[in-house]
UniProtKB/TrEMBL annotation:
InterPro entries according to UniProt: Amidohydro-rel, DHOase, DHOase/Allantoinase_Hydrolase, DHOase_cat, Metal-dep_hydrolase_composite, Metal_Hydrolase
SUPFAM superfamilies reported for this sequence: Composite domain of metallo-dependent hydrolases (SSF51338), Metallo-dependent hydrolases (SSF51556)
Domain of life, per lineage: Bacteria
Amidohydrolase-related domain ranges (all copies): 252-422
Domain Dihydroorotase catalytic: 55-222
GO terms under cellular component: cytoplasm
Organism field: Dyadobacter soli
Coiled coil: none
GO process annotations (BP): purine nucleobase catabolic process; pyrimidine nucleotide biosynthetic process
Protein name per the record: Dihydroorotase
Assigned keywords, A-Z: Pyrimidine biosynthesis
Length: 427
């Protein structure tokens, strides 16, 4: 592949070209030259006028569904959806069938994406079958290429298991990802516990369930590090899908104490509030649930001050039979790969440079992935986008269509991705 992208604005705080409009010549999967009015020669030419380019985006939380639930999503369709969303690398949760708790299943996923446009990074389960009982062979899975360890949709409920996992993973410099939810407090819950849940007669999921579990996890992390002297420059615990005022405060306090912790939020969390569920649209049934305006304001503040490190899609595809039924019987989750960037542009309150940080530099740091910069000689792992373009989300490339955004006009459009010597461009 030999390609010249002309007149594109570079968004990369580590690049000497940051903020400048430049031509970028790409050859054999690498950035060969960056400059003005470059000679295209025999290269394919893309007019980048009005476009921005950054390092390829990384999504830290995706349900791939394959193996086992290929009718909802498979490894091909999830890569296509990811590319359209601007992601060149995605982390797949282990909640498949079978669960990613052995090297065989892990390698099935890893090998399927070698050299592809979108790189798949499988996370391995902490416990066998992700059921919170017996440990997996984490050392073997780490050596086989697991990007991180998590029970995914199933928060680790057992405190002793969580503590031992932290102690076990630290010498490996491996990351533990956990979602804070005390499931005894959310049992049978359908939406955020508040005025709206009372009005519609639904069992609520209290903010307390997140806060109690997060307090526990952070205390266990602090205790584990008191007992060991490992390097803590990289996050040891990553808290996924924060959703409450107090949750943000707890992460902020933990970071002020120097604890090696990081956190993310789902892009869609900023787009709705609990009152939007009055119509019982099952596409708005997510976990953690959409919460109060005060919670959303805290999430935006956490993004702005760096308390929250990353924005994720929390892509959670479901077939029609899982969503088109009574609200209390429908599954939790919406698809998000294709809309995450637009929702961040529209609802985060961040400038585009900071949104890019939450999709590139920070996820890479948390996941121990190599840094990528837009520089001559660097690998061409790039996302091209127009943060001001308005577009109608008329078609989803995911196998599943459980999204509330189909047919809506969004702002912030991905125009192309390049990775591993491959490229794709979108209208």
């Amino acid at each position: 592949m030999k390609l010249l992208v002309s007149s594109v604005r570079v968004i990369d705080k580590k690049s000497p070209f940051d903020g400048q409009v430049k031509d970028i010549l790409i050859e054999d999967g690498k950035i060969k030259q960056i400059g003005d009015s470059l000679d295209a020669g025999n290269a394919q030419v893309i007019d980048g006028t009005g476009l921005h380019v950054s390092a390829g985006w990384v999504d830290m939380r995706v349900q791939g569904r394959d193996p086992g639930f290929e009718h909802k999503e498979d490894l091909h369709s999830v890569r296509v959806a990811a590319a359209h969303g601007g992601f060149t690398e995605i982390v797949l949760l282990p909640n498949t069938q079978p669960v990613v708790d052995t090297k065989d299943t892990l390698n099935y996923i890893r090998h399927s994406s070698f050299g592809g446009l979108v790189t798949l990074h499988p996370a391995a389960a902490v416990t066998k079958k992700a059921d919170g009982v017996d440990f997996t062979e984490m050392m073997d899975l780490h050596q086989a290429g697991a990007i991180a360890f998590t029970d995914g949709e199933n928060p680790v409920q057992n405190a002793d298991l969580l503590l031992k996992t932290i102690l076990y993973l630290r010498p490996l410099n491996a990351l533990l990802i956990n979602r804070p939810e005390d499931r005894e407090l959310t049992l049978y819950g359908q939406m955020h516990e508040g005025v709206t849940s009372t009005l519609v007669g639904m069992k609520g999921m209290p903010a307390l369930a997140e806060e109690m579990m997060l307090i526990r996890d952070l205390k266990l992390l602090e205790y584990a590090l008191e007992k060991n002297t490992y390097d803590t420059s990289a996050p040891v615990l990553h808290v996924s899908l924060l959703s409450t005022v107090r949750g943000v405060e707890l992460i902020r306090e933990a970071k002020a104490k120097g604890l090696p912790v990081s956190a993310d939020i789902a892009a869609h969390q900023l787009a709705f509030e609990d009152k939007d569920l009055i119509g019982f649209d099952t596409n708005l049934k997510v976990n953690p649930p959409f919460r109060s305006p005060e919670d959303n304001a805290a999430l935006r503040q956490g993004l702005a001050d760096g308390t929250i490190d990353a924005i994720v899609s929390d892509h959670n595809p479901h077939d029609e039979e899982s969503k088109n039924l009574e609200f209390d019987h429908a599954d939790f989750g919406i698809t998000g790969l294709e809309t995450a960037f637009a929702l961040a542009v529209m609802h985060s309150g961040l400038v585009v440079e900071d949104i890019v940080e939450k999709l590139t530099t920070q996820p890479r740091r948390v996941l121990r992935l190599p840094e990528i910069s837009i520089a001559e000689g660097a690998a061409a792992n790039l996302t091209f986008f127009d943060p001001n373009a308005e577009w109608v989300f008329g078609r989803s490339y995911s196998k599943s269509k459980n999204t509330p955004f189909l047919g809506q006009t969004l702002r912030g459009k991905v125009r192309g991705v390049i990775n591993n010597g491959k490229q794709e461009w979108f209208q």
